[in-house]
Amino acid sequence: xxxxxxxxxxxxxxxxxxxxxxxxxxxxxxxxxxxxxxxxxxxxxxxxxxxxxxxxxxxxxxxxxxxxxxxxxxxxxxxxxxxxxxxxxxxxxxxxxxxxxxxxxxxxxxxxxxxxxxxxxxxxxxxxxxxxxxxxxxxxxxxxxxxxxxxxxxxxxxxxxxxxxxxxxxxxxxxxxxxxxxxxxxxxxxxxxxxxxxxxxxxxxxxxxxxxxxxxxxxxxxxxxxx
Length: 227
Fold this sequence. Notes:
The protein is α+β, with helices and mostly antiparallel strands.
């Protein structure tokens, strides 16, 4: 083999190696990557979606089966220090929001909520809401020596999908990133046969609460304590 041929082969080998490295770099920047330990966190990706720095979509949304959420107090409390039943109309109000798989609140009217709604609407032909507010009033009766309040449970549902974001310039080494996510939020009353529930709950006063009934302002009467 001549010296010239040997030099040509060495040059060709370097060219192949450089070409392979270049192709690897292009692949790394164009193939979508999942958020991992050595890359951005899911919350960083979603923060870029929320700010608009990343051009994002929420792909292939899947709605879970609706279920009734936990009861929680939605009114003030009625304490009955009298010796007879106390009946009163009590107003209540409840706002239920949404949280993602990390337990982070999905802001009402924010970009994240908007992108989920667009995706769910396109797939299921009905809107998705990140928050639900409801209020009303209810007559409640509390027996002597007890405390009463109104509790409410909201129909809830999950929506699972994958966030995909595109950057104009590579970020964390890629133009595209994707991250799976599940958001839990309020569903419309009657979804999958589930209905919102409102009920009056009562309990016995504690010894300390009973003792407070002997004070002048509370003695022998029913009174309301704000929640």
